[in-house]
Amino acid sequence: xxxxxxxxxxxxxxxxxxxxxRDDTQAYLPEGLPESVVPVASDAIHVLxxxxxxxxxKLYVERLKRFVxxxxxxxxxxxxxxxxxxxxxxxxxxxxxxxxxxxxxxxxPDTPRADDVRKLRLDEMVEALPTVVAEPLLDVLxxxxxxxxxxxxxxxxxNRFSIRRLKIEASLKRWRRxxxxxxxxxxxxxxxxxxxxxALNRQPAAAATIVETATMVQGYGDAYRYGxxxxxxxxxxxxxPTFDGVxxxxxxxxxIAEARSVALPDPRQVALKRKIAEIRAGGPVASxxxx
Length: 291
Hints:
Blueprint lengths: L1 H18 L18 H15 L1 H12 L9 H15 L4 H14 L8 E6 H5 L4 H14 L5 E6 L4 H12 L1 H4 L3 H23 L4 H6 L8 H24 L7 H10 L8 H13 L9
Helix pairs in contact: 1-3, 2-3, 2-4, 5-8, 10-12, 12-13, 12-14, 13-14
């Protein structure tokens, strides 16, 4: 019942965030949090409050509560969940990059200023816009073949005009929660947490490895897209069928590590798909009776 109630509480904050019924009360650390995890979670609350507001930080806390005191979750694993979830919930989009540049300027106002040029894809820039605006733009980009086109964006603090532009870009965070990217990231984090839960129930020895797979999804541009695609390939090809009882992999953690070792920044995922197929071929398929 506790797990169900924690999930419901997490969903309550999620939907309150979507429909705009929010408050500005501060997020607090969950009860029973081990002392070793307190600094990580405290920093995460601060970062996520800055990133998207108090309710976003509360969503982080509710998600984390699902694993506090949970059987099979060590302090080290809980610390990794706390750290990696904060990393994914503060994902890098153009709004975040602009905000970080302003924080750098605030912390070191006398440091010589240089342009910071990043290569972002057109689709990820558009996906940071509200869905009602983004979807027709993506349709146009798709028709002209520019969805994956990379563009150089300058995030500069070199002069007053550049700083003003960064402030305008950073202020767009109020629209982030209506964006396509925001919706996809919410779903990704929930799926990652769900897979951790399933590992704890079906193959506890693999749980820490599932937690660590979050490091596959980082950054922006092509690297982000490739990492995300590889993550889904490994979860859908190895972890999920094992948890479903369709595939028997006694050492799921080793299988995931083996698959990750060949993952390359390849949009076709040739080496990764071949390795997943080899692992699946070597693992017996569960019979209908066993399922």
